[in-house]
Amino acid sequence: MEGHKTVKEILNSIDDDIEHIADTAVRIWGIFQYSDRKTPVTVKDISYIIGVPEKVAEDCLRMLEKRRKLIKKVDGGWVAERQSLKEIKPKKGVNRIHMFSGGLDSSYSLLKEACSIKKAMTKETIFPMFIDYGQFAAPVEWEATKAVVAYIRGFAGDSKLIDDPVRISLASDLFMWCHNVAFTGTEVGDEEPDIQNRNMVMLSVLCSYLIACAENGGVKTAEFKITSGFKEKEMKDCSESFFNGISQLLKSYKPNMIFTFSVMKDRNRSAIKREIKELLHGSEVELKKFCNITTSCYSPKNGKACGNCNKCKAIESEKASKQQ
Q1: What does pTM read for this prediction?
Q2: From CA 24, how far away is CA 61, in angstroms rounded?
Q3: 284 Cβ partners below 8 Å, 6+ apart?
Q4: Are residues 183 and 45 part of one domain?
Q5: What is the pLDDT of residues 235-263, one digit of tens each?
């Protein structure tokens, strides 16, 4: 009927509105980043500064407040909300740090490290660190991280063996220049979500956090042994020489803070699962429990594996080869 919009036209207009609001929200957050975090920013301020109607400015402020939780409403307007973060307490001497993603590789690496400490009876504590850099799978990975830590503590019968995991959340627009599907949840088939220089960025952020925690606690000299699920030459920024270079750079900045990074030998999932089973005293039941709480999917849907990304395809291929 003439004068009526088609369903497609309505959907397109909704998409345009959402895109406009999201873009405006990002620009508003930029204003907060340069504010003093104390003086409230009003709807009229936003409307005037970036040239949008007050209604749009108000909608964007509410979106930031509810969805991203980066600002809060106060009398007179909104203020930026500094995110609180638990600080670990490094000691003088060796501190064991584990970069954790909740995936099979990093979960295996953490289990191996925990079993080694338990066997040596050294009473050391591992500090697991999860970095949310804006990846689509971050919420699922974080849940897996907490689940794996709880499992290993229970299996080892030692709640002090692994500290509570710390989640370091970076701005979701940190890698805004990267068009990788790891940020959109649309990874399908053989595409590899290689994010430009990601590991150097994450390690730099992690080391900044560790140095601050040490110095805030009065520790001026410390060694941090960092393990992870990184496999040798899995990607261009996953190699022993690459990580050694970062160690040397950090040493020139903080000579009294020593950082060493361990890289896993490259091996397939089947080999890793065999080693996990050995660490779990050969129990097939425990192996299944352990693997079921890890996550490998780049593009999870409603908390479940998508079945389409290259990680999911690799898992399905592994299952198919076992059945033959």
Answers
A1: 0.74
A2: 9
A3: 277
A4: no
A5: 778 888 899 999 999 999 999 999 999 98
